[in-house]
Amino acid sequence: MNKRELILDALQELLYEGTAGTASVQDIASKAGIAKGGLYYYFKSKEEVLDALVERQYSNVIETCRIKLAAVNVAASEKIKLLLYFYRSTAVDQSIDVALHEPQNAAIHQKSMAFIMRQLAPIVADILQQGVAEKIFVCDQPEQMAEILLSPIIFLLDPGLFTWTDHEVQLKLKALAHMLEASLQAPADSFAFLYENWTQQSLK
Questions:
Q1: What is the CATH superfamily name and number for domain 47-203?
Q2: Euclidean distance between CA atoms 198 and 192, whole angstroms
Q3: Which of 16, 21, 119, 188 could covalently link to 104 via disulfide, CB atoms 3.0 to 4.6 Å apart?
Q4: What CATH fold (topology level) applies to the domain 1-44?
Q5: Which residues bind DNA (predicted)?
Q6: Residue ranges, CATH 1.10.357.10, the chain
Q7: What dihedral angle (degrees, nearest 10) is formed by the CA atoms of 187, 193, 196, 198?
Q8: pTM beyond 0.85, yes or no
Q9: Inter-residue contact 154 to 111 (CB < 8 Å)
Q10: What stretches of the chain adopt beta strand conformation (E)?
């Protein structure tokens, strides 16, 4: 294993231990069993190590979603439903997911959500453009609409940031569905899948 991966593994271990948020570059290097200067050969700062760890954990998940979507030939609204399903069902290290929701790891958690947003938004934008071509959506700004669609799902409904009751979450999802249908001039109930058969597990 190369030193770059050792460094990322070290930060991941610190994440499990609950000390990644306060760990210094020296702490990470020591955990990796290398000199501090060795870490700086691969990364300019702790922030770069954090970014690289987040990218390593989630890039495979996003790419898997992209590949699965490319293999299906369905209408745009169904493709959005499938994207969310693929994202939720694609395996990610559950220990990391739990650790990211610990208060002391808030900064890394925020980075992970921002990374997911940046990676998923272009995929959703392409689907919205497909919907325009299919004449089931009207959308002049697919990139911005994609971010609006994802923001509540990624940020507002994150259990590490907010504590909502099941009923409150379902109401928010229903409001989001209605807003999207109105904004995109989509057929009624095109986004009903967001709140129908909703369970707490379905958003994790």
A1: Tetracycline Repressor, domain 2 (1.10.357.10)
A2: 10
A3: 21
A4: Arc Repressor Mutant, subunit A (1.10.10)
A5: 24-43
A6: 47-203
A7: -160
A8: no
A9: no
A10: none
